[in-house]
Amino acid sequence: MIVGTAGHIDHGKTTLVRALTGVDTDRLPEEKKRGISIELGYAFLDVPARDGGAAAPTQPQRIGFIDVPGHEKFIHTMAAGAVGIDHALLVVAADDGVMPQTLEHVQILQLLGIRSASVAITKADCVPPERVAQVQEEVRAILSVTAMAEAPLLATAAAQPDA
User: Fold this and answer.
1) Annotated catalytic, 21?
2) Least confident of 13-27, 62-76, 100-114, 121-135
3) Residue 132 near residue 121, CB atoms below 8 Å
């Protein structure tokens, strides 16, 4: 499965991928210097296979991640990274909520026919629970008119060592 990130700049896409995989997808010196993704980043995670019962043991499953830039100047790069993904991981920061590139990225996912998605509400540890709930409502509203309307919403704190 290929999972592609989507979301506004500084909402934690790269941090979340790093927390899940251990890979820093910002590898270019310019990305490190500026603190933003410029190019597509790639990582993978091997997860244990589900036990099929009496069937022969199965191999671990590999999930590939494509981490896309969130800055408006790199929207073409985001679109290139989103082509061919199986699942979208929409990232929305709890402190900012839905922002312009959140909306643009959702529109691109719609145009590409992406139907499978999850939403990570990042930085949930930085705001009161009421704010997390408000952002969840914002996300539900923008996704309600898309094929991703039933996407699960998960509050995260990926910057935490054990998150």
Assistant:
1) no
2) 62-76
3) yes
Contact at 8 Å (CB) between 14 and 41?
yes
The whole-model pTM stands at 0.84
**Annotation says 71 is catalytic:** yes
Catalytic residue (one of 5, 8, 11, 14)? 14
Q: Which of 11, 13, 105, 123 is catalytic?
A: 13
Confidence of residue 31 (pLDDT cuts 50, 70, 90): confident
Out of 5, 8, 10, 156, the active site residue is 10
CB-based contact 108:82 (threshold 8 Å): yes
**Dihedral sign for Cα atoms in the order 6, 40, 87, 46:** negative
3-state secondary structure of 131: helix
Instruction: Report pLDDT for 3.
Output: 93
pLDDT band at residue 163 using 50, 70 and 90 as cut-offs: very low
Coil, strand, or helix at residue 119?
Answer: strand
